[in-house]
Amino acid sequence: xxxxxxxxxxxxxxxxxxxxxxxxxxxxxxxxxxxxxxxxxxxxxxxxxxxxxxxxxxxxxxxxxxxxxxxxxxxxxxxxxxxxxxxxxxxxxxxxxxxxxxxxxxxxxxxxxxxxxxxxxxxxxxxxxxxxxxxxxxxxxxxxxxxxxxxxxxxxxxxxxxxxxxxxxxxxxxxxxxxxxxxxxxxxxxxxxxxxxxxxxxxxxxxxxxxxxxxxxxxxxxxxxxxxxxxxxxxxxxxxxxxxxxxxxxxxxxxxxxxxxxxxxxxxxxxxxxxxxxxxxxxxxxxxxxxxxxxxxxxxxxxxxxxxxxxxxxxxxxxxxxxxxxxxxxxxxxxxxxxxxxxxxxxxxxxxxxxxxxxxxxxxxxxxxxxxxxxxxxxxxxxxxxxxxx
Length: 390
Known about the structure:
Helix content: 10-25%
Order of helices and strands: HEEEEEEEEEEEEEEHEEEEEEEEHEEEEE
Organism: Rhizopus stolonifer
Number of domains: 1
Protein name: Serum paraoxonase/arylesterase 2
Distance between the termini: 69 Å
Oligomer: single chain
Binding site for Ca(2+): 63, 131, 182, 248, 299-300
Keywords: Calcium, Disulfide bond, Glycoprotein, Hydrolase, Metal-binding
CATH topology: Neuraminidase
Family: Belongs to the paraoxonase family.
Number of strands: 27
């Protein structure tokens, strides 16, 4: 018979050590994995890519969306991100007045590309992040939805209509539950529209905290972010996904929603279910479907429903992104870029692009134009866009 001393693993004093280790080990591993310090970044498929630059304020373009018009993209750019950005927690001292952000129309089918900066009209304190496009199923009216992290006001979702190549500010939506918005995805279903045609939409709150120190550690330790649904029929917000580690990009269709959970290096897929109450007011709820791990820090998403392809922009070494955020804007270090596709039909993922940052840094958005056999990449801490042949 074994002596009692041989059963030391069951002794209480050892469990006082074992339990904390068991609890902390997954957290530590997740932090290491998310930091990207173990990731080797080798260039993949950079040869068919070229960087498209433009005027000095065509810079720090975090996200973009392709139009239904061939070769046209709408791009959200915020030049002030180089020194003041709520999303990246960068607060440096600007040398001059804070520049307003803007939406650009880019015709990348031309050589060279034709860039047009939209007049933002009376909208001031515009510092955009995510962007998406709604097309009314009956009237064909185009509405651009963007996240605005205003410096001197509460965050909002801004809506613009595109009329005769001009941008017209339609509406500002603020709500207590729109507190740290990152990305937005509209429903095109007519029953979910307000009387003026405003679409309902999903949006992510990427953080719960506003205090910079807590906000910085939240993606590693606290699953407090969420995804919500703004119902344009009722002007109310409904939480549909909770307890996420840094909810980031959202994309999909009227039937599927994809969510980028940056803190877990994962992309989640949900089925969108629609229901109607006794008064005929529609609402939604989500059913979890599946997820994939992608490594690094996934950012914005773009779903192509015809091809059933999800484009995922990734920061393979997030610590390098933080270094770039905090560096001298005139001499920033490289931050690697990566684009992965998730083929929903086959459930396979594939790296389409990886760059050590020498060509294009800080990838935050990607989308495929299959008609022109091209894909585009945006970067929150980079100039212009990256355009690649498929």
